[in-house]
Amino acid sequence: MTPRTYFLETFGCQMNVLDSELVDGQLRDMGLRPAATPEQADVVLFNTCSVRQHAEDKVMSRLGRLKRQKTRRPETVIGVIGCMAERQKEDLFVHVPHLDLICGPGEIHRLPALIERVWQHHDRVVALAGSQSRRTDVLQRGLIEDDLEALDLSRRPGQGGGGLQAYVRVQRGCDKFCTYCIVPLTRGPERSRPPDHVVTEARRLADSGFREITLLGQTVNSYLYGEDGRTVRFAQLLERVHDIESLDRIRFVTSFPADWDEDIFRVMRDCPRICPYLHIPAQSGSDRILKAMKRGYTVAEYLDLMDLARKYCPDIALAGDMIVGFCGETEDDFRATVELVRRVQYKSLFVFKYSPRPGTAADRNREDDVPYDVKVRRNNELLRVQSEVSLRHRRSLIGSTVQVLVEGFSKSARKLRSMEPSAAGSTQGSESSPRTAPTPPPATARQLVGRTPHDLIAVFDGDPSLIGAIAAVQVESASALTLFGRVQSVVSPSRSH
Length: 497
Ligand code: SAH
Ligand code: SF4
Ligand code: F3S
Description:
It is a single chain. The protein folds into 4 domains: 5-136, Rossmann fold, CATH 3.40.50.12160; 156-275, Transcription Regulator spoIIAA (2-Layer Sandwich); 277-395, Transcription Regulator spoIIAA; 401-492, CATH 2.40.50. The protein has 19 helices and 21 strands. The strands form 6 sheets. A 6-stranded parallel β-sheet has the order 2-1-3-4-5-6, sandwiched between helices. The chain is α/β, with parallel strands linked by helices. It starts with a strand and ends in a 5-residue tail after the last strand.
């Protein structure tokens, strides 16, 4: 009998990417093989995000396309896992009658059993925080946590140094309840993982060849764990992870400004392999709006914190998120946001149009009163301002040398390679001329891409054997998003070659 196959598509944040990696491992352990498309798969799972309506709409459209497949091949298992499952719960069955499985992000360790149940009983299955099935299966909260921990710890890192960068969770859930945000409702309360588990996982990844790890938490710097009558805070956890000498780079996301602890800056300053990079969203540059969002800081406090960051780590790269068009945002509030973005000089900024989420305080108590076209205008203007900032910042690096962890072929080079008849396995692509490649500078099939410790993307010509290495690259030109350069030397060769 040919083995059954699965297709898993992931939406949303790094937490979901990590969860999908774990789900992927579980499905393989069940003997399933990956399929190239949902149409070819026996099990189709979408690991979903609810943070904005748009994220949910994308999944609904994917699910809609599977309706015919389910009629043709009723034995296909179709499932929604992740945050959208937790937010919409059984209502999803009403909107998507051909759905078989709903599983929240806190229940993914149960997926193999759930899939088996669909196969055996041709039944619909639901696993959600607080659902009946969970209450009967698992009586104590502690047990659930143990199961989730066991799932994280069971992760098998890429064999033989296959991987370069990996995520390690330090915290689950979120307790902040920013008024616009669905995450505390989909991921539950904040719980920090035992430091030993975090360090063990990071060490295992390092031992199998991973060079960079990113510690993950919704408010990662709020990490707090009680151990032997003492508490371990994030600064101490970072130090413990930094003790793993074979790790070249350590990052962490996302930081929450109101919970900052100066010790974290001290550790960042003193530990050379912790990247000088901070993703620390402000969300707005207006005190009035920050208060309405319940973020817990003022603009002045946020700016003081950014100044302090630069005092400890003068070349620190700051990244942020902003929401435009939150309830009641006036033109003056928006101007204040533009002002903040100019003042902070982020190396990158993610801008989102406010999207009301059912169940959040903002959706209950405030009116979504900024017209959509105004949100679009503010969104575009803010991106334009950031693009100027980004370009100026990247251009200031021309002539300097940056250390790049080489990840692989750049996208444009990958496209060109896939057009090569040998790579594509057909002659079709060869009709496309490389001259259609974006300029400047022209992409070549040997163009590689990687990231600097500051999380800047660098593209350069180089031998594929550099993939996995850390290379010194001299910056020759720059766009708002990318540095272009030339390899000067190999700082540390690839571990897998
Ligand atoms: N925990 C992180 C971010 C989690 S969600 C933090 O607190 O910074 C990622 C980003 O999505 C947020 O930073 C915010 O900018 C954006 N976001 C969250 N809810 C949103 C909503 N309802 N509408 C638009 N953007 C939203
Ligand atoms: Fe959402 Fe706020 Fe928690 Fe971030 S800190 S996940 S924005 S509630
Ligand atoms: Fe989305 Fe859930 Fe992450 S709502 S942003 S996938 S925690």
